[in-house]
Amino acid sequence: MAKLDGKIALISGGTSGIGAETAKLFQAEGATVIVTGSSQASVDSAKAELPGIEVLVSNAGDITATKALVDQVAAKHGRIDVLFVNAGIAKFAPIEQVDEAFFDSQFDVNVKGAFFLLKHAAPVISDGGSIILTASVAGASGGLGGGTVYGSTKAALRSFGRTFASELKSRGIRVNTISPGPIDTPILDKNGFTPAQKEAFLTGAATRIPLGRAGTSPEVAAAALYLAADATYTTGAELFVDGGLIDL
């Protein structure tokens, strides 16, 4: 029997990278999987890459869209068993270059969007279900240059992982957080990295990581599956998937 047989899994930000790899793994483990993308173009591309997975357009920073998403999933599937709050953006700039638009764009998606997805989804998550949030080592460390705003959004998600775990404990809903270290994902390309800059970032990260390399999306997906299916006595926890960057 597969680990997620008969489960309904919703993954925000699931059209590429960590979200897409997790969607494929959850599907392979028996789940009915729904993923979201922020644009029609990303959704159309993902439909070809994720056969058998439902792909929906939903702007993670739009509260109205978030509510509509949950209503749509609930109307079609009746419930959510696993919610993976993975949608997020990452922008980097020195403090003196940060303006209000730069600040708001990240907090709107990474913090406000995540909070209201959790709020709207909570009533339709099955008792005994699982919620997983994607934070980052940037939320636990001050060492990422230009990452003051980004890191603070991820610190908020780490807090949500604990506070929502407390709020939902009476229903047996487990809430846990994954904090990846440097991962080779399309988000680097979306940030405007040239191939040379991307290689320099990953190579530089490897010199600081005890395991000597950046991580991969399938490795983070495996952690998400563990929290969704196997970690039945774990809630309010944070799992660092970072090659030992934070702990060693």
Structural features:
single chain; 248 residues; alpha/beta; Rossmann fold; 7-stranded parallel β-sheet; 8 helices
The gist of it:
This protein has helices at 17-28, 40-49, 63-77, 100-121, 148-167, 187-190, 195-208, 217-230, and strands at residues 8-12, 32-37, 54-57, 80-85, 125-134, 174-180, 238-241. The chain has 248 residues and is α/β, with parallel strands linked by helices.
Write up this protein.
The chain is of the alpha/beta class and 248 residues long. It is built from 8 helices and 7 strands. It is globular and about 45 Å long.
Write the layout of secondary structure elements.
Blueprint: E1 8-12, H1 17-28, E2 32-37, H2 40-49, E3 54-57, H3 63-77, E4 80-85, H4 100-121, E5 125-134, H5 148-167, E6 174-180, H6 187-190, H7 195-208, H8 217-230, E7 238-241
Parallel strand pairs: 1-2, 1-4, 2-3, 4-5, 5-6, 6-7
Strand content: 15-25%
- The ordered string of helix (H) and strand (E) elements is EHEHEHEHEHEHHHE
The share of residues in helices is 40-55%
What's the count of strands? Answer: 7
CATH class: Alpha Beta
Low-confidence stretches: none
**In terms of structural class, how would the helical and strand content be classed?**
alpha/beta
Q: How many domains?
A: 1
Assembly classification: single chain
Specify the CATH homologous superfamily.
NAD(P)-binding Rossmann-like Domain
Total DSSP helices: 8
